[in-house]
Amino acid sequence: MKWTIQRDFESGSTRITLAGGLTPEAEPHLAALLLAGALDAPLALVVDLDTITTSDIAPIGAFLAQWATDRTDGPELTVSANPLTPPGRLLRATLGQHAILGKALLEHPADRAPISAYRAHLRLPADAQSPAAARRLVARQCEAWGMHAVADRAMVIASELVSNVVQHAGTDMDITVADVAGSLRISVRDREGETPDSTTPTLPRQVTEGGRGLPIIAALTTKWGFFPFGDGKTVWAAIDGPNGSLVSGRAVPISPPGPQRPLDPV
Question: Is the entire prediction scored with pTM above 0.85?
Answer without folding.
Answer: no
